[in-house]
Amino acid sequence: MFTYVVRRTLQAIPLLLAISVILYAILYNMPGGPLAPYLQNPHITAADIARLKHNLGMDQPVPIQYFKWLGHILVGDMGYSTSNSEPVFQALIERLPATLELMAASLVISIGLGVAAGMVSAVYRYSFVDYFITTLAFFGQSMPVFWFALMMQLAFAVHGIPLPGGYMIQLPSAGISSSDTFDLGDRLIHLILPATVLSLLGLATFSRFMRSSLLEVLGTDYMRTAAAKGLAFRTILFKHGLKNALIPVVTIIALSLPSLIGGAIITETIFAWPGMGRLFLTALNQSDLALLMGYLVLIAFLVVFSNLLADVVYAWLDPRVKYD
After folding, report:
1. Domain map of the chain by residue range?
2. pTM score, whole prediction
3. How far apart are alpha carbons 313 and 226 in whole angstroms?
């Protein structure tokens, strides 16, 4: 296993290099290129543009510019953000914990509830419960994230949740906390709405795949043999069925990371969540190419790492999977 992890890590290096080349080429050919933030100044002159190109190294061939950028990346220098007036690496690292917190919470919700709903749907297939869960799954897969986020804000932040005795609970609709001091309860309350919105698509997807996978496992010979031996259905389901049914679901979880990141951009913007997604949208609106490039390269690394992690989980779930 260790040899496989090392080999996959080495294989990821040329992949990340190829991704960086493509991203650099796309961003370099955007309207205005790296000079776009400066060209918005109506008083800029041709002499100013020439001086900026020389200072930024843009008067050199594009491959030379790319290799210089790559050399800086390898030592942890992602450039300077023109929209935030701070180093790109610092801007990303400051907002990475908030994004990871939101993504982790949404994954816990979507995996936990999605797997549980899929199991219930498979065990009680073709029943009212199965049809009800299937309907909710189709609703979650077809629901636009931005619209669902606005409806959640309207329902739980504007109107609130009525309680017995005439009390009303209103969940916060924006921000990560109410104060600068760390308060776990306050952070969790602020996390409820954005994490729920971000987990909707994953919850629906995981429940459908879990239902299909578990139905296939329940029909296998070894499951029937275990039942014939007199084992309790709960033991058969959790000890023999669940672990094997989770194998294809792991693939979907790993492949859902890009869509989760894309949904985080919208969710963080609507809920004013101080994460990398909101930072990316600000950089895109202000043509901050250095920040855009740093963000996209970091996301590419996380996606490649998640796929490697999925392969490792395969071997743990299924002893038949051997990596030589």
Report:
1. 2-87, 88-317
2. 0.81
3. 25
